[in-house]
Amino acid sequence: ELRHRASPWQRNLGYPLAMLGLLALTGISVLIVCFHVLELLLDDAAMPRGIQDASLGQVSFSIFGSFGAALQVVLIFYLMVSSVVGFYSSPLFTRLLPERQDTPLTKIIGNCVSLLVLSSALPVFSRTLGITRFDLLGDFGRFNWLGNFYIVFLYNMGFAALTTLCLVKRVSWAVQAELIRAFGEGG
C-alpha cells in the first residue's frame, strides 16, 4: 500500500538508491571481515584484545584516516540498525513489536531490555569482526574469549559466510522474480 502511494521519484529513484546503498554497506562489511580473517591468519596482533597505552587522538584507528573513521561509524550504525531489524524479524520476537497506542507495560519493558542487550553487544560485535579497534570507553577488549583465536576466527567466518549467503539469496531471488515477471508479461 505504501509503494502505491509513493511518488514516481521515490519508486524510480529513491528505492533503487536505498537498495544499492544497503548492498554496498553489506558488501563493504563483508570485505572488511574477510580482510580481518586474513589478518587473523597472518598476524597475532589482529586479535581484538584491548589496546594498551593508546590515547584517543594520538593513534589513528583506521588506516584510511578520516575517511576510514567515517566509514567505520557508518558501518557500526548499519550493523546496529540491521541487528535491530533482524531481531524484530525473527519469528521468536515478532510478538514483541510495539503497537501504536496499544502496547502493554510488560512489552515496553521487554523492548527496553532487548534494545539494551543489543546496544551493549554492539561494541564487542564490531570489535570482534574487525570493523573497529576503538574500545568505546568500555574496555570491551579485556574479555578473555577475545584472545581465543578459534572463537574469533569462527565468529568472523560465520558472519562472512552467512551474510554472503543472505545477500546472494536476496539478490538472486529479486532477479529471478523480475525475470519471471518480465518474461511472463511478454509471453
TrEMBL record:
<keyword id="KW-0879">Wnt signaling pathway</keyword>
<protein>
    <submittedName>
        <fullName>LMBRL protein</fullName>
    </submittedName>
</protein>
<keyword id="KW-0472">Membrane</keyword>
<dbReference type="GO" id="GO:0004888">
    <property type="term" value="F:transmembrane signaling receptor activity"/>
</dbReference>
<keyword id="KW-1133">Transmembrane helix</keyword>
<keyword id="KW-1003">Cell membrane</keyword>
<dbReference type="InterPro" id="IPR008075">
    <property type="entry name" value="LIMR"/>
</dbReference>
<dbReference type="InterPro" id="IPR006876">
    <property type="entry name" value="LMBR1-like_membr_prot"/>
</dbReference>
<feature type="transmembrane region" description="Helical">
    <location>
        <begin position="12"/>
        <end position="38"/>
    </location>
</feature>
<feature type="transmembrane region" description="Helical">
    <location>
        <begin position="58"/>
        <end position="88"/>
    </location>
</feature>
<feature type="transmembrane region" description="Helical">
    <location>
        <begin position="108"/>
        <end position="125"/>
    </location>
</feature>
<dbReference type="Pfam" id="PF04791">
    <property type="entry name" value="LMBR1"/>
</dbReference>
<feature type="transmembrane region" description="Helical">
    <location>
        <begin position="145"/>
        <end position="168"/>
    </location>
</feature>
<keyword id="KW-0254">Endocytosis</keyword>
<keyword id="KW-0256">Endoplasmic reticulum</keyword>
<comment type="similarity">
    <text>Belongs to the LIMR family.</text>
</comment>
<keyword id="KW-0812">Transmembrane</keyword>
<dbReference type="GO" id="GO:0006898">
    <property type="term" value="P:receptor-mediated endocytosis"/>
</dbReference>
<keyword id="KW-0675">Receptor</keyword>
<dbReference type="GO" id="GO:0016055">
    <property type="term" value="P:Wnt signaling pathway"/>
</dbReference>
<dbReference type="GO" id="GO:0005886">
    <property type="term" value="C:plasma membrane"/>
</dbReference>
<dbReference type="GO" id="GO:0005789">
    <property type="term" value="C:endoplasmic reticulum membrane"/>
</dbReference>
